[in-house]
Amino acid sequence: MRELDQLMERYLDQAWREATADERGVFLRLLDSEDDKLWRWFLGYDAPPDAELARMVERIRTLPR
To answer: Domain residues for 21?
Structure first.
């Protein structure tokens, strides 16, 4: 989905360089998730199964456009 790509690109453009190794690992785990789950998480219909993924989703959602 193009919209998901845009969200992920925003994180890469704005936060990846300053991210810690742990944060980068969480982002990579997020990328392993299925698109339909990601879409529901980013729209707020469902929550990710663990706190780290939930924090990453919220971080990406709140990045400036």
So the answer is: 2-61
Whole-model pTM: value is 0.93
- Rg of the chain over all Cα atoms, to the nearest angstrom: 11
Cα–Cα distance for residue pair 16/44, rounded to 1 Å: 23
- Residue 51 tokens, joined: 């706190």
User: Which DSSP string do the residues of 3-44 spell out, in sequence order?
Assistant: HHHHHHHHHHHHTTTT--HHHHHHHHHHHTS-HHHHHHHHHT
Domain count, the chain: 1
Q: What is the domain-level CATH number for residue 32?
A: 1.10.150.250
- Tens digit of pLDDT at every position of the chain (65 positions): 799 999 999 999 999 999 999 999 999 999 999 999 999 999 999 999 999 999 999 999 999 99
